[in-house]
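Help needed: design a sequence for this.
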């Protein structure tokens, strides 16, 4: 199997997993009776179409995707691609294939209008025995990691931005129990036939509902500046989310996800945090 160059580059620090991928894909094909086609050119996971389904394999260290299958199962095809089968040992899943499969960003559709229709349908509060990682646990990790990275890298941006994020991590609502998606944006919404649009690639947590907005605000900040962020805040507020918590989590999460072990701080992520804070 030909692995996409972008995938090889993204996971170059995990050569053992890359070497295992052809075998894992072949085992999944035998297990589920698939005729695999050429992989999609995606960097974060191996994604291989097979007729009316898609085989997806996630890297072992990609822990944000640990419970992707669980989120799809919880949504049960309502506003999101349907989970067909899973093999947690291989970190593999079969997902409904979205046809024609264009991502929302590649169309002329109004992203805000499409997401405003989808987001209320994705709202869930899992029972207490759910498998998902909690926002509270993640915030505790970020509360230690983000300031440490800031110090080790020589304080590369204004201290006020860090302090704002630290206050958000430390002041979250621990009673909140919504299933939320840290990576909802137009690149992860595909045109489909069963429903007009379906969400893919969730990075689920359980916690404050406003975390559903972090991917939308991050990308709005990078592509359209404060005016675009403000328009998204207007839309999400109309859906019942708290404007200030949306803004707060937008800033804090941009920094939480703004670090690369090889490259250090992402200038784009830091700039996104600044822009959201100013909105």
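Sure. Designed sequence:
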């Amino acid at each position: 199997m030909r692995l996409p160059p972008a995938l090889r580059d993204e996971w170059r620090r995990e050569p053992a997993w890359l070497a295992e991928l052809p075998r894992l894909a072949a085992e999944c094909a035998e297990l589920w009776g698939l005729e695999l086609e050429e992989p999609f050119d995606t960097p974060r996971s191996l994604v291989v179409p097979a007729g009316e389904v898609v085989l997806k394999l996630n890297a072992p260290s990609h822990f944000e995707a640990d419970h992707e299958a669980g989120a799809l199962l919880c949504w049960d095809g309502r506003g999101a691609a349907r989970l067909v089968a899973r093999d947690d040992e291989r970190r593999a899943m079969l997902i409904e294939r979205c046809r024609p499969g264009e991502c929302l960003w590649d169309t002329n559709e109004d992203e805000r209008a499409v997401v405003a229709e989808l987001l209320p349908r994705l709202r869930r509060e899992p029972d207490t025995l759910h498998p998902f990682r909690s926002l509270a646990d993640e915030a505790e990790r970020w509360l230690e990691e983000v300031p440490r990275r800031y110090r080790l890298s020589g304080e590369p941006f204004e201290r006020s931005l860090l302090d704002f994020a630290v206050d958000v991590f430390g002041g979250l609502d621990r009673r909140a129990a919504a299933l939320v998606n840290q990576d909802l944006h137009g690149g992860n919404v595909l045109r489909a036939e069963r429903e007009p649009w379906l969400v893919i690639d969730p990075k689920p947590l359980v916690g404050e509902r406003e975390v559903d907005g972090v991917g939308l605000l991050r990308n709005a900040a990078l592509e359209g500046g404060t005016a675009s962020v403000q328009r998204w805040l207007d839309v999400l507020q109309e859906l019942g989310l708290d404007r200030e918590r949306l803004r707060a989590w937008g800033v804090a999460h941009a920094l939480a996800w703004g670090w690369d072990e090889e490259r250090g701080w992402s200038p784009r992520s830091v700039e996104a945090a600044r822009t959201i804070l100013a909105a």
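The chain has two domains: 5-96, 104-278.
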